[in-house]
Design a protein that fits this description.
25% helix; 20 strands; 7-stranded mixed sheet; single chain; 4-stranded antiparallel sheet
Length: 507
């Protein structure tokens, strides 16, 4: 409770205001004068024996003090067995003329009515973030009303006109949400790197962007400055994964740190997860381990098109495990593999390495394996030895069957749909064709029919009964969609594509 009882009265009940010049000075000094927000409430209260408090409150329902997070029954410091029942701020007459006579009569039958003054201080601690910001920002500016929370990090998107006050805004948010929030960041510029990871400026708090997020029974570790994460997609992660069933094979082309892959594996699916960003792969593997689903998640670090082609082309292998071992043993492992550039990290007695050519491997005993000092032949031998434990995994042959393909790269996933043309061999394939879940953005000038047409243009075939799901509003004129459809047989099989003309003409 942020209250204070005083015997003396304060004259003013008006809320304190802070002028524009003071705002600039506070921003310059990175100091907020919290006393500027003190507001005194001069109330009236009834002295009530504690055994009558419930009855008195029932009689005076609608005439009691009502402020969020503050009580209307408080102790009386002068008498232990007596409580103060605080009256509404609208009750100003000590004779209680604002209260109906029949209610006063009921009180008088119950006890002696004693009215006393009571003062409450509403200080800086009481006021919520939006109230404080409204007082310190210039009039007419839109107050930042929300922010995304990623573990201990608050992610702001501050408008240009508020940039001069960004550190002051960050201070208030940090101060009001500590210790849950320990770092406040603002996105800087536009996303321009190949991994589509935003750049952030730390405005307040801890500089570290390594954090932990929990979603629906799964735990995710991540470095928010190096990988992509969006907490606002939590419901979408759950919605899509709920469609998967134990034993199904799921291919995640843009897996990130595993918001779809990890819950799918927890659900009993076998997952082939790929991402181009080596940092995402590092945390994807860590997350698979801490969620105890490593046996169900096969991890790749490569371009999404190359990933799908390689995954479906190894039809003479016995399982996905052999693909991974073969590619690693044949790859040229450089000394850079275990440097910070290619992201090697020691954790719980293991070495996790992201191979620059796209593979991920685990060395169980890093005391016995020194990759930087081995000759080429020795490196190949140790890599194979480090993967002997993979043979215990159940055989997974995605070139024979996939149930779901996730394409969570809304900015450009539609452009990757052409990878499915002739991807599957009818000779090896078993069962129905996979269901594709392709995320994309739709502008206000577009319709869902336009999105479907763009997908058909990329595939060169019409889609049969596609489903378009609205995920969330991204901006006033931009929404995120999920386009789900069964992969058309006319385009999926190698034999069909090689012997027939395109079934859907470009427009």
């Amino acid at each position: 409770e942020h209250t204070l009882t005083l015997t003396q009265r304060k004259e003013s009940n008006q809320e304190a205001s802070v002028c524009h010049q003071e705002v600039l000075e506070m921003h310059k000094e990175a100091v907020l004068d919290k006393s500027k927000f003190d507001v005194w409430l001069n109330l009236l209260a009834l002295r009530v024996p504690k055994q009558h408090c419930t009855s008195v409150c029932n009689i005076l329902s609608g005439y009691l003090f009502n402020r969020p997070r503050l009580r209307y029954i408080v102790p009386d410091s002068s008498t232990p067995d007596v409580r103060l029942v605080l009256l509404s701020e609208q009750i100003t007459d000590p004779n209680l003329s604002e209260i109906p006579k029949h209610k006063l009569a009921s009180l008088q039958l119950l006890m002696e009515v004693v009215v006393v003054p009571h003062n409450i201080l509403l200080d800086y601690r009481y006021w919520p973030v939006d109230h404080v910001l409204k007082k310190i920002l210039p009039s007419g500016y839109e107050v930042p009303s929300s922010f995304e929370t990623i573990g201990h990090i608050a992610h702001l998107n501050i408008r240009d006109e508020l940039l001069p006050y960004q550190k002051l805004i960050a201070f208030v948010i940090l101060d009001k949400n500590w210790p849950k929030i320990k770092t406040v960041v603002n996105k800087v510029g536009t996303i321009s790197n190949e991994y589509r990871v935003p750049k952030f400026e730390v405005l307040a708090g801890n500089e570290s962007l390594v954090t932990e997020v929990k979603q629906h029974g799964a735990t995710f570790h991540l470095d928010y400055g190096l990988v992509y994460w969006n907490s606002r997609l939590e419901h979408e992660h759950r919605r899509l994964v709920s469609q998967f069933h134990p034993g199904q094979v799921v291919c995640d082309m843009f897996a990130g740190i595993g918001p779809f892959a990890i819950p799918a594996a927890q659900r009993g699916c076998l997952v082939c997860a790929n991402d181009l960003n080596p940092q995402s792969i590092k945390y994807l593997r860590i997350n698979a381990e801490i969620n105890k689903v490593s046996e169900n998640v096969h991890i790749f670090n490569m371009d999404a098109r190359d990933f799908m082609k390689q995954l479906m082309a190894n039809r003479d292998r016995d399982s996905i495990t052999e693909i991974q071992i073969h590619n690693m043993s044949a790859a040229s492992v450089s000394e850079e593999c275990c440097t910070e550039k290619h992201d090697a990290t020691e954790r719980q007695g293991k070495v996790f390495c992201c191979h620059p050519n796209n593979q991920v491997y685990t060395c169980k005993d890093n005391a016995q394996v020194n990759l930087t000092q081995q000759k080429s032949q020795g490196q190949k031998s140790n890599l194979l030895k480090a993967h002997t434990d993979l043979n215990a995994r159940s055989a997974l042959k995605p070139w024979e069957h996939l149930d779901h393909v996730i394409m969570n790269l809304p900015a450009s996933a539609l452009e990757f749909l052409d990878v499915f043309k002739g991807l599957i061999s009818r000779t090896h394939w078993k069962g129905s064709l996979p269901k594709v879940h392709c995320y994309c953005f739709m502008r206000s000038s577009e319709t869902t029919a336009d999105i479907i047409q763009r997908a058909e243009k990329s595939l060169k075939v019409p889609l049969i009964e596609p489903i378009v799901w609205t995920v969330r509003d991204v901006a006033p004129n931009k929404i995120m969609l999920c386009l789900s459809f069964n992969l058309p047989e006319a385009i999926a099989f190698t034999e069909n594509v090689s012997t027939s003309e395109p079934l859907c003409k470009e427009t």
